[in-house]
Every structure is written in structure tokens, then in C-alpha cells.
Write a structure and sequence with these properties.
Strand order of the largest sheet: 1-4
Number of strands: 8
Structural class: mainly alpha
Number of helices: 10
Distance between the termini: 74 Å
Shape: globular
Largest sheet: 2 strands, parallel
Number of domains: 1
Length: 334
């Protein structure tokens, strides 16, 4: 009996067979739309800031542009051939390879966060707004949109996890195959019920880490921020930057743990190799083997702690006077 799941055969990465449009790209558009809708909902109902639809669209354009630039630059400099891209910087955004349109393959989440923040900072500086005040509102709804981004990764059959014998293991059709001449490969195949002949190359089950991330970094984090800390910000007048700090903290923690289930990039491996089995990135062997993604997550957690300290010492509280003015205005109207 097979103890694993097969990647759904009916899933096609392309929306239409006759157009080079992937579900991955469409999912990110959905993510942006959801985040924008939740942002406008908070502007209209929470009374924290006043911002027109035109201003909101300009803000999101600046933030999304920064996100794309940051995500691509980080991917090229930290996860690809750094020397090549430093000497050929235009290649970072050149969407063609060997005469074929390939888009922008390779985007870094952590770079996207940095770029999005810088894009938002540029907008808020020009329009004399508080970046932390605005960021708190965007960040409350962002994880729900992020969920769809990770679903896009799943549909693409990419960013899968390490080899596992767990019942949740899934065989991804494009994953690396392993030779059954290797002992651990045979042991894994035997445990999950994959038949083989010695010397065959087999595709082994892997953790569907895209779905883990969609759930914890997306849905769970959205529930925490939008339905727990957002109401607290309004009722208790938490200081601006608190929600952003909590987002960085919880995301960093969730992602750090999930990275133990996710296979590091083969061209990078582990950044810190203090545990056993560090030569085999396909298997989890020790918590002391740390990937580059975990290094960035640790920096997120540290940044979150420092930002929390900063906003609680020097930050401004949410000002409820706008709500008071509204109430008084209604009373006068009567």
C-alpha cells in the first residue's frame, strides 16, 4: 500500500494552454487585490487614517513596485550567480533567455518585504504620512493575500519540501529523482511502498511545504493580526508599528520552523552546518543545519524585537480624536 499522495494530475500551471499565463502570476494578482480590499475596508471602518481611493492606489503602486524590485534583486544577489548579476545588472529584469520569454524567474520573499517597505516609505515621505501608521493597516490584511501566493507556488510544483515517509508526503513530478543505489533512498522507497530495481532513479515523497506556508504564514497569521491585534490597536490605542512588528515576529518564527521541512536551494545548501548529515539537503537530519532562508528569518525576528522596543519608547499611539470628532459631528447634526 502506497503511503504518500501524488501531485494532482489535473493541475496545469498555465491558465490557458494557448497563452503563456501561469496560475502563479494570477495568484499574486489575487493576493494584491485582496490586500488592497482589506486595506480600504480598514480605512473606511476603523477610523485610524483618512485616505482616498486614489491615494490608496498610488500607495499600493509604489509598494508593489518596490516589492517586485526588491524580490528580484534579492533573488539574483543572494540565491543565484551573484558575480554575474553584479557585472550584468540589467539581466535582473531582462525577461528573455535564449530568445524565449521567461518572465522574472526567481523572487525572494524577504527581498520583497524590504522593497515593499522602501516603496511605501518613499510614498509616505512625499505625502507627509507616518510609514508605521500606514504599514500597520496594510500588514493586517497582507497574510491572507500571501496565502494565494503560496498556492501559486504549489500549482507550479515548486518550493517543495524535503523527502519524507510521512503520510502527508507528496510526489511532485518535477522534483529531483534519486538513485536506488543509495541506501537511504531504498529505505525511504520501501517504507512508502514504491517498487524499484537496484539502480533505478525514483521520485520520493516530499513535504508540501507550500501548503504549510499558506496555512501558517497566511491564514493563521491573518487571523492573529486581523481579528486579535487589529481590534486591540483600535480599542487599546496601540502604538503605530506594533502590528508591523508582530507580523515580522510571527512570520519569522513560522517560516524559520517550516524551513526545517523545506529543502534548501541545491546551489547553496546550508549556510551553517553544525549538525550531522549536512551533506544531504534532501533529508532533515539536525536543527543545527541552518539554511539561508532561516538566516533571513532570524534577522526578521531580531528586527521585530528592536522595532517593538522602539515603537514602545518613541512611537506614537493611535489617535482616537478623529472618532471623537465624528461622534460630535453627528450629535451636532441632530
Amino acid at each position: 500500500m502506497a503511503l504518500f499522495l501524488n501531485f494532482p494530475s489535473w493541475i496545469d500551471p498555465y491558465v490557458f494552454s494557448f497563452l503563456p499565463i501561469r496560475w502563479y502570476a494570477l495568484m499574486y494578482i489575487v493576493a494584491f487585490v485582496i490586500t488592497y480590499v482589506l486595506f480600504r475596508y480598514q480605512v473606511r471602518h476603523d477610523g485610524i487614517i483618512e485616505m482616498s481611493a486614489d491615494e490608496s492606489q498610488s500607495l499600493f503602486f509604489s509598494a508593489i513596485l518596490g516589492l517586485i524590485i526588491g524580490a528580484r534583486v534579492f533573488s539574483c544577489l543572494f540565491y543565484s550567480d551573484t558575480t554575474y548579476y553584479l557585472t550584468h545588472p540589467w539581466a535582473m529584469f531582462w525577461p528573455f533567455q535564449n530568445g524565449h520569454f521567461v518572465g522574472l524567474p526567481g523572487m525572494s520573499y524577504h527581498g520583497g518585504v524590504v522593497g515593499c517597505f522602501i516603496g511605501g516609505l518613499i510614498y509616505t515621505r512625499r505625502h507627509k504620512r507616518s510609514i508605521l501608521e500606514v504599514t500597520d493597516i496594510i500588514i493586517a490584511g497582507l497574510p491572507l493575500g500571501y496565502t494565494f501566493g503560496r498556492l501559486g507556488n504549489f500549482i507550479n510544483g515548486e518550493l517543495y519540501g524535503r523527502v519524507t515517509t510521512s503520510p502527508v508526503g507528496m510526489i511532485f513530478p518535477n522534483a529531483e529523482k534519486f538513485s536506488t543505489a543509495i541506501g537511504w533512498v531504498r529505505d525511504t522507497a520501501d517504507k512508502v511502498g514504491i517498487s524499484y530495481s537496484i539502480g533505478d532513479y525514483v521520485n520520493l515523497p516530499r513535504y508540501p511545504t507550500q501548503l504549510f506556508e499558506a496555512f501558517f504564514e497566511g491564514i493563521v497569521l491573518f487571523l492573529i493580526l486581523f481579528f486579535i491585534f487589529r481590534p486591540l490597536k483600535i480599542k487599546k490605542h496601540l502604538k503605530h508599528g506594533t502590528l508591523f512588528s508582530l507580523y515580522l515576529l510571527f512570520y519569522g518564527l513560522f517560516r524559520f520552523v517550516i524551513e526545517y521541512f523545506r529543502e534548501p536551494d541545491s546551489n547553496i545548501g546550508y549556510v551553517i552546518s553544525l549538525g550531522k548529515g549536512s551533506d544531504n539537503i534532501a533529508l532533515f537530519t539536525s536543527v543545527l543545519n541552518i539554511s539561508k532562508g532561516q538566516i533571513f528569518c532570524a534577522l526578521m525576528i531580531l528586527s521585530a524585537i528592536l522595532l517593538l522596543v522602539f515603537v514602545n519608547i518613541k512611537g506614537e499611539r493611535y489617535d482616537c480624536r478623529r472618532e471623537d470628532r465624528k461622534i460630535k459631528g453627528k450629535a451636532k447634526g441632530k
